[in-house]
Design brief:
With 391 residues, the chain is α+β, with helices and mostly antiparallel strands. It folds into 2 domains: 227 residues, Thiolase/Chalcone synthase (Peroxisomal Thiolase, Chain A, domain 1, 3-Layer(aba) Sandwich), CATH 3.40.47.10; 153 residues, Thiolase/Chalcone synthase (Peroxisomal Thiolase, Chain A, domain 1, 3-Layer(aba) Sandwich). 34% of the residues lie in helices and 27% in strands. The protein is globular, with a radius of gyration of 20 Å. The structure holds coenzyme A.
């Protein structure tokens, strides 16, 4: 019985900062951003948005379309958690009005977490095919101001309904796996911004591509020339192109440089203007691919997930014939296009804003436009609310 992605929806931040603003402010040649790392713009969250409001906004259309009845598990992946104990998914469960008879848990392994969630969800559905699992990947990528990572920031949440006999994508077995203990990117508990050794992370990523591909072959996976498209985790979109060139050489794929470029290009179209969204990044790439290519019915895709630290997985998936009727292309484009432009000064002010850490009550300004908002903090607790729609 096929199992996989039955529905997919994403949400991103209220604001958009163009890289042209960053380039002007820092006196950097814009080509470094547009060509060097492959980024044009980044999503920036309003003061009253966070990973929970984005996650609920991403999942709401799925619940609206399919109802809550069959969802008995919510797996939320993030590496920018808002609490060390309580799962962000429990807030989302409440905002969406999911039934009490649900298990909810948070998963973490840097940007890889959502792929773990997808695979665990598929296993749960295999055990009980009448049940569906809501998988949510939600993250805000934040680095120190004026650090090399700053230009790769971004924010998004992707929600996926994992089910038997899926309408969009059948996830295949086997997977190729790779784990290596490496400090390429990490965020100690006392920091709100990540630390990254950029060059080490690129090398570690490429080694993980090799390792996961090798294991995929040993487990009896497809030959490389069977895949119609390749979807890679994108800390910045240029990385997907680097990864594909690397895999093609390692696996002796005879494509021309132009073919290698076009196999990956459609997967980068949302990430290029949203920025890194950590756990959500690979699945934003998948959304972009499905929204921009019309020839994928019945064809196999390659998916490569990488989470610094590091864990990686390579797996195949088949696009379900007729899937285009189930996509949310218009909604996805609107999430990108309706963002409000923010200038460099506004972005910096938001970047420097921190929530109190001493238990003081704190009310946030009404600022974002998504369906849910973080009202503030009270007695060390985060308070969320569905937004009464503003005109
Ligand atoms: N025109 C065209 N290309 C340019 C350019 C210009 N004017 N100026 C620089 N470039 C290119 C460089 O040649 C380089 O390309 P290459 O990687 O193919 O060699 C690229 O732009 C980046 O330049 P670099 O000087 O290395 O930039 P940087 O010091 O700002 O670092 C990253 C770039 C990606 C390493 C940095 O942004 C980073 O650490 N990002 C976070 C990565 C991450 O999140 N990793 C964890 C998850 S995998």
């Amino acid at each position: 019985m096929p199992i996989g992605i039955h529905d997919l929806s994403f949400a991103t931040g209220h604001y958009v900062l163009e890289h042209a603003e960053l380039a002007r402010a820092y006196g950097v040649d814009i080509d470094k951003f547009h060509l060097g790392i492959g980024q044009e713009a980044m999503s920036v969250l309003a003061a009253d948005e966070d990973i929970v409001t984005m996650a609920a906004a991403a999942a709401q259309p799925i619940v609206d379309r399919h109802g809550t009845g069959d969802i008995r598990t919510v797996l939320l992946a993030t590496e920018t958690a808002v609490d060390q104990a309580k799962s962000a998914g429990v807030y989302v469960h409440s905002l969406l009005g999911l039934p009490a008879a649900t298990r909810v848990v948070e998963l973490k392994q840097a940007c890889y977490g959502a792929t773990a969630a997808l695979q665990f969800a598929a296993a749960l559905v295999a055990r009980e095919p009448s049940q569906r699992v809501l998988v949510i990947a939600t993250d805000v990528a934040r680095y120190d101001l004026e650090s090399p990572g700053e230009s790769t920031q971004g924010a998004a949440a992707v929600a996926m309904l994992v089910a038997a006999d899926p309408a969009i994508l059948r996830v295949e077995s086997p997977s190729g796996l790779f784990t290596a203990d490496i400090m390429d990117f990490w965020r100690p508990n006392y920091r709100s911004t990540a630390l990254v050794d950029g060059r080490t992370s690129i090398t570690a990523y490429l080694q993980a591509v090799e390792g996961a591909w090798k294991d995929y072959g040993e487990q009896g996976g497809r030959a490389i020339d069977e895949f119609s498209a390749f979807c890679y985790h994108q800390p910045f979109t240029k990385m997907a192109h680097k990864a594909h060139r690397h895999l093609a050489e390692f696996a002796s794929l005879a494509d021309t440089p132009n073919e290698l470029h076009t196999a990956v290009l459609p997967t980068t179209l949302y990430n290029r203007v949203i920025g890194n969204s950590y756990t959500a990044s690979l699945y934003l790439g998948l959304a972009a691919l499905l929204d921009h290519r019309t020839d994928l019915d019945g064809r196999p895709l390659a998916m490569f997930s990488y989470g610094s630290g590091s864990v990686a997985e390579f797996f195949g998936a088949t696009v379900v014939p007729g899937h285009r009727e189930h996509l949310r292309t218009a909604g996805n484009r609107s999430a990108v296009n309706r963002r409000t432009p923010i200038d460099f000064a506004g972005y910096r002010a938001l970047h420097e804003q921190t929530l109190p850490t001493d238990g003081r009550d704190h009310e946030l300004p009404v600022e974002g436009s998504g369906p849910f908002r973080l009202l503030g903090l009270s007695g060390h607790k985060r308070i969320y609310q569905a937004r009464a729609h503003r005109s």
